[in-house]
């Protein structure tokens, strides 16, 4: 047995009744059906007005309007003798209405609609029987006698085993003395649940004019969506607190009988709607819906947020308060309730705004801000950046409310610009088919089309690209760079770039230039910009030298020259590794560190002691490697000496406060011996360590991987989104 209930909007006219009949007859092919129907839309209100009417002429006129409406439906649905029989049956019912007591007038609407439906089904050669709910559903004292009602329904169904479709009026019942009564406004849903429980139906479907229960009233919140499935208790909570799509008493009979019921849309029968059942408790919590009720007598409205399996009421309460505060709404007290229901009292004038604010917080994806990004450099870091942008797009949008859209891409030869976006999967092909990038053409193209809020990312090692940063700032772009050469400039140029960014309302971020994705620069800048002045910075930040020095162990492992060649082959060094050995790369990083600390250091202020003598730097590269191999005995002797002393050597860049120095700080880069008490002693591979000492705080030690294209790309994404 199946029970299908249809609301007033579903049977409002002949066309809609025909649609209902299509649904019912399709269901009847699978199993027997009990069809429960409301009055046609507007009829109940008209009958209430009729019962209150005291003027006989006006009453007759009201009856005439209702009779004409129902006769018009019958004329559309029936022909010939069937039409005459239907019209005669309706005329008889309207005569009863004219003679009825005022209080009984409201009970006739469902009689009209179901008589039409029952006769039409019979005309389709389907065995049909109209059931009189006034005789079956008993509600003495206004409360349904469920035991007797179920027994009556079961007897009526069992007495007609050959009937395929039963048709019953919703909403109406009889009291303990046989007088007709009602189950309350919306009671047809309740009637359907009673029939389902009484007939021990396998399913119950409530057909209405919306696609199921929704996360909010769609007339209040256009972004509301259908709740696919919900527990009996959560559905009851929403219904009791303002969700009009479901009459609250409906839930109890279905829940007690263990009948899952669905709420469907008559006008979109393919939509699955909402399934209400004894669904198992969710593991991590789900939000079901938000609704509200106005209490005019108290001068307030109560907004209700309903969830299932919510693990932390306190956290949810804070989110509610934050959402209201963001919308400028002051609630009339604290968040209350118990279990998975949360109640918020507000003034009636802002009830809708409060519902919208809470729905936005708990059910809507925040508006995602699209950040257009132009990327210069499609080497290892640029390629990984493009890949990660595609891979993490959904997560970034969900967590940060932002989306990175790659709109331009360039390597040293070609470039591509497309403001609609360049998909990560197609980036390589788009670049191959792109425009000639010679003569700064990519920057020209960026400046000609960059939208507001765009970001230019420099992933290159270009020596000259920084020369156009000022143009980009003036063009309204912000800049993120991993190119140390763009910052290791004379201080006046560095300061001019920072000022240009500020004056044009842009940001200039370069955290990956030192320590890759480690938070070194932001930590130093934080100390420098507060009252805790920096006393010293010591940093081991050369990935190349760290890789070689920590991997070298004298005669027990590869030679120094072998390790250096391997580092060069793996891309850890500059094209000429002597740039690293001579401290030039570390110099750039020390300049950046110092300037973030507020010290306007210049390259000539730094004393550099290379780890090798000048004879290694004034010869061709292959000659350099031959000399390096010949120097291996000295490396071995030094390693043995360090082992005997329990020490290790590290190439350390340092900035220390010194009142006698030109800038009040002394800077140097040189090899130092360190013992186990130093954090530098324990590093390995390409790890970096920076130690920052300030006037009042304990030393800050920042340690982690200083190399890796994925880390670099991740750091750039962080700078873009910061």
Description:
The protein is of the alpha/beta class. The protein has 4 domains: 2-208, Carbamate kinase (3-Layer(aba) Sandwich), CATH 3.40.1160; 286-363, Alpha-Beta Plaits; 371-510, Rossmann fold, CATH 3.40.50; 520-705, Dihydrodipicolinate Reductase, domain 2 (2-Layer Sandwich), CATH 3.30.360. It is 40% helix and 20% strand. It contains 26 helices and 26 strands. The strands form 5 sheets. Strands 3-4-2-1-7-9-10-8 form an 8-stranded mixed sheet, with helices on both faces. It has a 7-stranded mixed sheet with strand order 17-16-15-14-18-19-20, with helices on both faces. Strands 22-24-23-21-25-26 form a 6-stranded mixed sheet. Strand 25 and strand 26 form a beta hairpin. Helix 8 packs parallel to helix 10 and helix 20 (543-551) packs antiparallel against helix 21 (560-569). The longest helix is centred in the N-terminal third of the chain and has 22 residues, at 56-77. The chain is elongated and about 120 Å long. The model has no long low-confidence stretch (mean pLDDT 92).
């Amino acid at each position: 047995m199946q029970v299908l209930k249809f609301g007033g909007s579903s049977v409002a006219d002949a066309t809609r009744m025909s649609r209902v009949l299509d649904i019912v007859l399709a269901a009847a092919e699978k199993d027997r059906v009990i069809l429960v129907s409301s009055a046609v839309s507007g009829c109940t209100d008209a009958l209430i007005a009729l019962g209150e009417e005291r003027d006989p002429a006006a009453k007759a006129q009201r009856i005439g309007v209702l009779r004409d409406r129902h006769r018009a439906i019958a004329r559309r649905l029936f022909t010939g003798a069937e039409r005459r029989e239907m019209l005669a049956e309706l005329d008889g019912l309207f005569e009863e209405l004219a003679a009825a007591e005022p209080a009984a007038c409201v009970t006739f609407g469902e009689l009209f609609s179901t008589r039409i439906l029952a006769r039409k089904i019979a005309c389709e050669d389907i065995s049909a029987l109209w059931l009189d709910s006034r005789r079956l559903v008993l509600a003495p004292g206004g409360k349904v006698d469920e035991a007797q009602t179920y027994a009556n329904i079961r007897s009526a169904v069992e007495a007609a085993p050959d009937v395929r479709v039963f048709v019953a009026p919703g909403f109406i019942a009889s009291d303990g003395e046989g007088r007709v009564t009602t189950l309350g406004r919306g009671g047809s849903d309740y009637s359907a649940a009673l029939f389902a429980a009484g007939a021990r139906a396998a399913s119950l479907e409530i057909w209405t004019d919306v696609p199921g229960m929704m996360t909010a009233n769609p007339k209040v919140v256009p972004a509301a969506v259908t709740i696919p499935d919900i527990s009996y208790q959560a559905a009851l909570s929403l219904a009791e607190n303002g969700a009009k799509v479901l009459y609250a008493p409906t839930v109890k009979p279905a829940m007690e009988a263990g009948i899952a019921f669905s709420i469907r849309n008559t006008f979109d029968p393919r939509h699955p709607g909402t399934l209400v059942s004894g669904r198992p408790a969710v593991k991590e919590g789900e939000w079901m819906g938000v609704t509200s009720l106005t209490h005019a007598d108290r001068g307030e409205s109560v907004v209700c947020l309903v969830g299932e399996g919510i693990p932390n009421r306190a956290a949810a309460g804070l989110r509610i308060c934050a959402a209201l505060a963001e919308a400028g709404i002051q609630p009339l007290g604290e968040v209350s309730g118990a279990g998975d229901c949360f109640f918020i009292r507000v003034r009636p004038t802002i009830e809708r705004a409060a519902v919208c604010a809470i729905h936005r917080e708990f059910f809507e994806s925040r508006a995602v801000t699209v950040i257009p990004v132009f990327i210069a450099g499609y080497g290892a870091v640029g390629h990984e950046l493009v890949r990660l942008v595609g891979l993490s797009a959904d997560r970034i949008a969900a967590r940060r409310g932002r989306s990175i859209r790659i709109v331009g891409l360039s390597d040293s030869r070609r470039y591509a610009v497309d403001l609609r976006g360049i998909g990560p999967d197609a980036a390589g092909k788009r670049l191959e088919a792109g425009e000639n990038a010679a003569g700064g053409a990519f920057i020209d193209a960026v400046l000609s089309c960059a939208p507001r809020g765009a970001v230019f990312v420099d992933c290159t090692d270009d020596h000259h690209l920084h020369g156009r940063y000022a143009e980009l700032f003036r063009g309204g772009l912000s800049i993120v760079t991993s190119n140390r050469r763009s910052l290791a400039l004379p201080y006046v140029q560095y300061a001019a770039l920072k000022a240009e960014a500020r004056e044009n309302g842009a940001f200039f971020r370069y955290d990956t230039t030192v320590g890759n994705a480690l938070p070194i620069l932001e930590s130093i800048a934080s100390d420098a910009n507060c009252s805790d002045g920096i006393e010293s910075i010591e940093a081991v930040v050369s990935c190349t030298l760290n890789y070689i020095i920590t991997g070298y162990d004298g005669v027990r492992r590869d030679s120094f020259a072998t390790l250096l060649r391997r580092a060069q082959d793996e891309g850890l060094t500059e094209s000429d590794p002597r740039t690293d050995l001579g401290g030039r790369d570390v110099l750039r990083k020390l300049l950046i560190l110092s300037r973030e600390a507020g010290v306007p250091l210049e390259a000539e202020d730094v004393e550099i002691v290379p780890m090798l003598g000048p004879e290694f730097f004034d010869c061709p590269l292959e000659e350099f490697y031959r000399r390096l191999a010949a120097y291996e005995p000295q490396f071995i002797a030094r390693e043995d000496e360090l082992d005997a002393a329990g020490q290790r050597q590290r190439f350390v860049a340092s900035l220390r406060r010194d009142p006698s120095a030109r800038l009040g700080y002394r800077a140097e880069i040189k090899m130092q011996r360190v013992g186990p008490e130093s954090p530098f002693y324990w590093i390995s591979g390409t790890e970096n360590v920076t130690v920052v000492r300030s006037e009042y705080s304990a030393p800050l030690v920042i340690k982690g991987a200083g190399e890796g294209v994925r880390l670099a790309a991740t750091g750039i994404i962080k700078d873009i989104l910061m």
